[in-house]
Amino acid sequence: MVAALADTNDVAYQHEIIDSLMRATEGRSDLKPPARWGEVYNKLSTNEDPQMVAKADVLAARLGDDAISWRKQEIVLDAFAPMQSRLAALQLLLDRRDFQLTPIYQKILPEPALRLSALRGLAAYDVATTPAAILALYSTFNDTEKRAALSVLSARPAYAAKLIEAVRNGVIPKGDVDATVIRQLGLLQDPEITRATAELWGVVRESPEAAAKEIAHWKKILTPEKLAAANPSRGRAKFLQSCALCHTLFDDGQHIGPELTGSNRADLDYLLVNILDPNAVIGKDYLLTTVETKDGRTAAGILQRETASTVTLVNQVESVTLPRDSIKSSSQLELSLMPPGLLHGMSEDEVADLIAYLRSSSQVPLPQ
User: Fold this and answer.
1) Exposed site from 47, 121, 185, 268, fewest CB < 10 Å?
2) pLDDT level of residue 29 (50, 70, 90 thresholds)
3) Burial class for 288, CB neighbours closer than 10 Å (0-12, 13-18, 19+)
4) What is the pTM of this model?
């Protein structure tokens, strides 16, 4: 394929070949440059198409070109370089899967434009200094960045211990840790983390009996009068905060979980069962898959894609691609990606507002 790239000037054919090479080398770290790669790289790196140049750089890095990596590190750390160039260089470094790049990711954490990518880089490696680097800046993060940071801190037992300590010390507000993070902490199967989680947030049981009890509790509260007095606009804001990470309603939200716009939303029983007992009926496309890496990371999400060399999971925070040679074990659970306990921490009025919005027949404005 590299020889074919060297011998053609057909742009469409070049893209077809290089895209195939990109798919074939994804997640690989043991590759050597084939014959004529140097010739091909020199040819592609001077192409007028910036996408072609970017792909050539990524392939060069995957094929062990350390000079590319050094140049990209310099660009990422250059505060005077164009931000688009820094982001492109950072993407290449993320693709390298090299734990020695961790100090770079920690160094750029203070820069909002680079922060989410830096957190992705930090998530991949078990480095003792990472939790402190994140916690030192946590209060400056926006909501999306905080969710990403909590995802990193809840994926390894050692990091989770620092997360719990930060909650106890008030560095991370207790309310920032939602049902998704609490479930992730449980998936670590660490007795001390499990005990501390129960102490701070209570025990969330994923059982039909517990769900039935909670449904009955909320049916008593969500009377017709309570719902009539609720504010659907505030409920929309709560939906964007709690539900839109996975679901779409009236074109708001993500497409990880089922689309809600056409569902039986006017029925209170239907809503409560689906919110409070998400494991009652699970489509096979929404089963939770967990993967433990050899260095102790536990990732969970919907299995989005598999190749010969990688596994890709998608969840409420990110899409994460893991090399197969880094995986210690994996399993698909008879659980929904949607965790129980989503209403924990909400007041009765907040829940009523959310339900009122979910039952709306058309979109409502956000509150000012």
Assistant:
1) 47
2) low
3) buried
4) 0.84
